[in-house]
Specification:
By secondary structure, this protein is of the alpha+beta class. It has a domain of 63 residues: Alpha-Beta Plaits (2-Layer Sandwich). It has 3 helices and 4 strands; from the N terminus they run βββαβαα. It has a two-stranded antiparallel ribbon. A two-stranded antiparallel ribbon has the order 2-3.
Length: 105
């Protein structure tokens, strides 16, 4: 998926932070499809922050203890705007045919 369209992932500071004092150790965050977390005796830790998909915050949305936070969405939007990432993503999606209107059969 062309989330960053060639922009180095390590330059985008978008990943979760866990507040252990709020964590109820439910394990919901371990459902992360990108395996960002490792489980420890003290609950989850962010082990692979740059595996997190930019803009995704599903783990925080589902965390019953409100223990997971992300930078503000405005941060990621500023980077996308400054670096011209939206236009690059759109170009890639068009090239892949994913922005073609499907006609009813």
């Amino acid at each position: 998926m062309p989330w960053l369209a060639g922009f180095p992932r390590e330059k985008l500071e978008w990943y979760p932070t866990v507040d252990p004092s709020k964590c109820v150790k439910c394990g919901m965050c371990m459902n992360c499809g990108k395996s960002v977390y490792d489980w420890t005796e003290n609950g989850p830790v962010v082990a692979r922050p740059y595996s997190c998909v930019p803009g995704c915050s599903s783990c925080a949305n589902l965390c019953p203890g409100d223990a997971i936070t992300f930078p503000p969405t405005s941060y990621i939007r500023e980077v996308y705007k400054k670096e011209g990432i939206w236009a690059k993503v759109k170009k890639i999606l068009k090239e892949e045919g994913r922005l073609e209107v499907k006609k009813p059969e």
